[in-house]
Every structure is written in structure tokens, then in C-alpha cells.
Amino acid sequence: MKHYTTNILLQAFIAGIFLFTSCTANFEEINRLGGALSEEELNRDNYRSGVFFITLQDNAFPAQENNYQMNQNLIGDYLGRYMMYTNAGWSSANFTTYNAPRGWVNYPFNNVMTNIYSAWNEIARATGKSGISYAWAQMLRVQAMHRLTDMYGPIPYSKITGEELKTSYDTQEEVYKNLFTDLDEAIETFKSYVASNPQGTPFAEFDRVYGGNMNQWIKYANSLKLRMAIRIRYADPALAREMGEAAVKDGVITANADNAMEAYAKNPIEVMWNAYGDARLCADMESYLNGYNDPRANAYAQPSNIEGASRSIVGIRSGANVTNQEIARRYSSPVAGTKDPILWLSAAEMAFCRAEGALIGWNGMGGTVKELYNEGITLSFEQWGVSGANKYIEDDLLTQADYTDPQSVAGNLSAVSHITIKWNDRDGEEKQLERLITQKWLALWPNGHEAWCEIRRTGYPRIFPLAQSTNYGSLKVANRIPFNSDEYTNNRENVEAAVAAMGGADDYATKMWWQKK
What is residue 390's three-state secondary structure? Predict the structure, then answer.
């Protein structure tokens, strides 16, 4: 399979033991998988339990190339203004122009709910919802559902008690509060385990992120908690502060050695730009990298194949009407090799989150806003193996570059931002926020989902208008994607109640609960 598909997938979880048949689009029920496993069996037979954890990891952040394309690349990478399509068949219907095909819209919900709950249910049943195995499964479910709610808004979550997924939806506010509760419980279990087993590495053979190191998973869980706290800081300031301060106090990722990166058979971004040829750098990212003379440019993107271009790195405008794929594929490709790991979360992101916490008066962030802002930039440069962070941090002249299209696919544009790099404590809070988020957005690469969330949450970085007109007027980026259309047939009452709770139509314009700025 290349590109998108809505076919139901059969997934072999344990050869010779059982075969999992994925549920249909209406999620009537996830088939019960084989006989129940006891906690003793889980711990004794790592092969059995390990397969479930591999499934959870590979879907907590989409690793397999087709799932990555449908759940990340076509949505977050494009809406976050990191990448753009080059497939001529997508120009008239896609997420950037707010009219994606039904199969694209339905895919994340069907795919993630099916794959996550097939594995999670087995572990929950086997463990009686307790112990280190269940805590790890819970934390991975939180990671997956955190991403899913930030695509659709309300989703089924707290009402799911077993294999039946056809249930009522939580509002997004309820989702977040339940995610925090489940994450806190997982963190406490991790800490208790480490206290009793300081050298323990449960399921090390199947842990593709940290090799079973539970101290690193504790830092990751707290980092996820801080990310979520910053996300909701305009919607629920008190809860955001409580969760954010607690996460930092308990210990988030502060060094690149602890970055969450999944080792997978082949990097899906490499498949997107190389094997599929469907992804190229977006003009928004290019204009900031080139405008700032950013040393990370060549770590993020490859030189274009455009003859006579005035610069090496050249992006293509979001929403461009691509009619000639050969021409579109001459723009700069992302840098990604087959064996490169998949980035989930970085120390640089956490530094910027702590900087924003300090900006709004949260306690215990570990430094001043300026110190943490500079730390975020420095960590990002270190992460990508480039030098020049000190010089970059001190530049107070460079700004976003104008965009010129050397192939005239979508036209030229003047810069929309005049924000400089160097921190200035005398600037007003809004200007400081723009500077902070612009640099955070640059450092989040290549996680386009998080980049999209930052644009929606803060309005920064400032982005170019779309190259094509849409039915949504001046809307520059989708606030969400519509609900799975099959739910209107198979779970109508619940999905309609979810729409009513959002306070807006089931479309691309209705905002997330946390978009309260």
C-alpha cells in the first residue's frame, strides 16, 4: 500500500496464538484477542506482552509509513507549515484547502482507535489495570489520544471501559482532564517501580524509545504533561499552572540525551519525500530559515533542483495548485534518511515550554524567560549537530525573508513577520510571545502536528496566506478536521451530541476548546 487507504487492516499480533481482526469503521467492537494473560504471564513471557507494547508505541506516534502519511504528514506536517504536497491529484482536495476526501478525514480516527485499543485492552484485562505494564500502556494511550483529540476535538475516551468503542464522546475539556489523571497515575506507578527496582528495565527488548529505562520514561511522561499544560493555558489557566509546575518539579527532559525518539525499521519522512515523492519543504519554513540565515537549514532541508534559483533551500507555498508533479518535486525535500529515528519530543521543546511558563508567572521553571529561550535555541542547534547558536541568539536584525517562487507555481509574497531573534526583556508580552513561539516552531521540526497546534493556539509564527482560495474566507489554517463521517451512520446520537458540545459546526473552522487566546 502506498498513499491512503480505508481498507480494514488485519494485524498479526502473536503468530500461532491469535489473529487480531480490526474493527469496522463503525467500531462495533474490537474482537477479543485469544485467552486472557495474567500479570505473571506478561512479566514471564516478554514475547507475548512485547508485541502489544510495540503496537502501542508504533501508534502513539505513527511510525509505519502509511499511517504516518495519513495521521501526520497530510495533516500536521502540512497544516503546521513544515511541508507541502507535490502530488497533482491532491491539489483540489486536501486538508490545507479544507476539503480533504472522506477517506482522509476518517482515517486517523479509525486507525488510531482500532490499533491503540486492540493492544491496550489486552494489557488492561491481563493486568487488572494495575502494575508497571498497565502504567506504561496507559501512558502510551495518553500520548495517542492527546494527538487524536487535537485533530478532531471531542473524542470517546473516559466512557471506553473495554472492547466496545461505540460510545459517547468526552468534550475536549473532559478529555484533557482525564488525560492528566491517567498520566499522573502512570507517573506514580513508574516512580514506585523505580524505587523498588532501580536497575530494572522491563520489556527492554521491545522498548523502541528508551530501551526499558524507566527513569527516562518518567521524564518523558512529565514532559508530555508540561506540553499539555502549555496547550491549555488560555482555556484553563489554573489547571495549566498546576499541571505545568508539577511536571517541571517532578522532572522533564532537559538534555538531548533524553529526547524521545523511536527507532523504527525505516523513517517515514524519508518514505514521504523519496519513495513516494509527495512531500517538499513549505515556503513558510523556508522563509524563516533563509531570513534568519539559520544554520539548521541544511539539517532540515536539501538543496532544491530548481535551475537558476537565487537560493539553495526553496519551499513551495501551502495550498499551491500543483498541476505538474515533476516541477513541484524540484523544490527542497526534507532531510531524512532511512534509518533516522522518529522524533516524539525534545529537550528544546521543553525549554521553550518552560520559557512560556516563566513568561506568564509560573514558579519553578528553572530560569528566566530569556535564559530558557536561549536554552531552547541552544538545545535545538545541539540536537541537529550544527554550530553557531551563540551568534544566532545575539542577532537583532534578521527577520523572515520575502518569498519568491522561482518556478511561478504559486506566486511571490512579502514577509508577514518582522520579529527578530535576540531576546529583549523590554518588549511587551505579546511581542515576546511571538518571538518565543517563532523559535519554538523552528525547533519543533519535524513534528508538524505540534507545529500546527502552536499556530492554532497562539497565532504564531505568522504564516503566509494560502495559494488557493477556499470556502473558508481568510482562514489560514484549519482549526480541526471534521469527525469521522461513518460515525454519523453508526454512532449518530453520540457524534451529534459532540458537535453540539463544541458550539460550532463540524467543519474546519470550529476551534479547539483550548483556542481561547
Answer: helix
Q: Give all strands (DSSP E) within 295-390, no chain letters.
A: 342-345
Q: Which three cell numbers stand for residue 372?
A: 530558557
Closest to 457 (Cα-Cα) out of 176, 80, 169, 73: 80
Residues 188, 133: Cα–Cα separation, whole Å: 13
Report pLDDT for 156. 97
Within 10 Å of residue 10's Cβ, how many Cβ atoms?
Answer: 9
Q: Is 505 helix (H, G, I), strand (E, B) or coil?
A: coil
The dihedral over CA atoms of 456, 459, 463, 469, expressed in degrees to the nearest 10, equals 60
Distances (CA, A) of 101 to 4, 63, 89, 276, 509: 10, 22, 11, 19, 17
pLDDT in tens, 154-181: 999 999 976 777 899 999 999 999 999 9
Cα(492)–Cα(133) distance, rounded to whole angstroms? 35
> Phi, psi (5° rounding) for residue 134?
-70, -40
Count Cβ atoms within 10 A of the Cβ of residue 215 and give its class: 0-12 exposed, 13-18 middle, 19 or more buried: middle
Determine the CATH number of domain 46-269+336-502. Answer: 1.25.40.390
